[in-house]
Amino acid sequence: METLEPYLAELPFLRGLSTEHIKLIVGCASNVKFDAGQYIDREGQAANTFYVVRHGRIAIEIFHPTTGPICIQTVGEGDIAGWSWLFPPFVHHFDSRAVELTRAIAFDGECLRRKCDQDHELGYEMYKRFAAIMESRIESTRMQLMDLYR
Amino acid sequence: MSIPQAMTATSAGIDPMLPDLFRIRRVRPETHDTFTFELAPVQSGKRFSFLPGQFNMMYVFGVGEVPVSISGDATSTGLLTHTVRAVGSVTRVMANMKAGEIIGIRGPFGTPWPVQEAEGNDLLIIGGGIGLAPLRPALYYALANRSRFGKVVLLYGTRTPEDILYRKELESLRARFDLDVDVTVDRAGGDWHGNVGVVTRLIPKASFDPGNAFAFICGPEVMMRFTAMALQKREVPLQSIYLTMERNMKCAIGLCGHCQMGPLFVCKDGPVFRYDRIRDIFTTREI
Q1: Looking at chain A, which terminus has fewer C-beta neighbours within 10 angstroms, N or C?
Q2: Under CATH, which number does the domain A5-145 receive?
Q3: Domain check: are B86 and B179 in the same one?
Q4: CA of B159: which chain A residue's CA is closest?
Q5: Domain housing B222
Q6: Interface test with B, best of A11, A53, A74, A77 (most B CBs within 10 A)
Q7: What does the pLDDT look like over B147-187, one tens digit per residue?
Q8: What is the pLDDT of residue B2?
């Protein structure tokens, strides 16, 4: 049976991860598909999954009672959606919605956390990767806050 | 297609302080606060030539004068095009001017985008907000001479979907097979299906050969700083990064000092600068 292993090894997010670690995490990964407009996660829901987008676009949104959903950021091919699974209380802080037909690799956060706890080298590699993504997203958010084009 | 021999108003031997009269042929609204003028010389037979990236001083008689980049096609001998954002006392008056009215033009002034030097390489054109306007002549040049360039990539970021400049033109450019166009906005509602996020986020995914690429950047200074950093992360050589600066240009010929930036005059030594030549000034505060 064909597994996701070769695909995971090619993901920029996992590039450089050892073959052993790829083998270890492949059991936490599965293919998913979201239709345009479909909500993937909702604020307040348990966060047990993160996604690597294969194709399409996901909007990270916050709901405003008077104006409705406000899109803070979109993530596309090769990007990661979701890191609330990493930190207690493992709850989503934002909504996420497929802007268009989106295919992604879903990683079971609980499964991955367990494996990271058992193998600290894997845990370090994963946290390093997420830290880099967070740094980049924080930088972007700071620039957005500056409202440069006003 | 090549650009007609253009020079600055100063080098042309004419009085650079004397405006020529131009008639507004057409006013095209772009966004809620931005519009494009198409201008023709009042004196028949007179032609206006410029290089991509140069600017003019636009004079509203009785009100004042402002520097505005030329946003049209340098390879065309047609109308002179300026895209203006109504933000100050002069540009707000300009926003109310109609076709048929007269405006004074001094120029062209300043250094151009090194479009010919960039030939043989991939070309990245990265704009933010109204900063797309000064880049447009460089894009026109690349498209008119498409076979002389490798990949041509246009990355554009702006505030909201309603603030997208030249929207219809961008939509038609996206349909071309020989050009990559990616647009992002800082914020959007649920009806926007494009990217949301800052323009620098488009750079890691853009398809080009960093070692053989030229990048032209125009936008707010903070945006240009971060864009240059993102290009460095992709290992684009500093000497291949160009950006255009904006300062309070008044005389436009390097005399008055209003646009002085350290040892440089933006009007005369710029507005287009090679990044490695101004990087230190660029990051120095209170210059």
Answers
A1: N
A2: 2.60.120.10
A3: no
A4: A149
A5: 115-244
A6: A74
A7: 999 999 999 999 999 999 999 999 999 999 999 999 999 99
A8: 59
Cβ neighbours of A133 in B, within 8 Å = none
Residue B190: the pLDDT is 80
What are the C-alpha distances in Å from B108 to residues A128, B12, B55, B203, B264?
Answer: 51, 10, 6, 32, 19
Where chain B has pLDDT below 50, the residues are none
Residue A7, pLDDT above cutoff 60:
yes
| Contacts for B258-261: CB closer than 8 Å, 24+ residues apart | B261/B287
Give the CATH number, domain containing residue B234: 3.40.50.80
pLDDT value for B5: 54
CB contact under 8 A, B163 and A149: yes
Instruction: For residue B155, list chain A residues with Cβ-Cβ distance below 8 A.
Output: none
Q: Is residue B15 domain-resident?
A: no
B163-171 contact pairs (CB < 8 A, 24+): B163/A149, B163/B31, B163/B32, B163/B129, B164/B31, B165/B30, B165/B31, B165/B34, B165/B83, B165/B129, B165/B130, B165/B132, B165/B133, B166/B30, B166/B132, B166/B136, B167/B30
Is A148 in Cβ contact with B128 (below 8 Å)?
yes
Same domain (yes/no): B129, B224: yes
Q: Is the pLDDT of residue A64 over 90?
A: no
Residue B154 belongs to a domain: yes
B130 contacts: CB under 8 Å, gap ≥ 6 = A149, B34, B83, B85, B165
pLDDT score, position B206: 96
Domain ranges for chain A: 5-145
Name every residue whose Cβ is closer than 8 Å to that of residue A97 and which is 6 or more positions away in sequence: A37, A38, A39, A40, A58, A59, A61, A69, B190
CB contact under 8 A, A68 and B129: no
- For the entire predicted model, the pTM comes to 0.91
Is B192 in Cβ contact with A140 (below 8 Å)? no
The residue behind tokens 């030594």 is: B269
CATH number at residue B70: 2.40.30.10
Residue from A73, A82, A24 nearest A52 by CA: A82
pLDDT at res. B251:
86
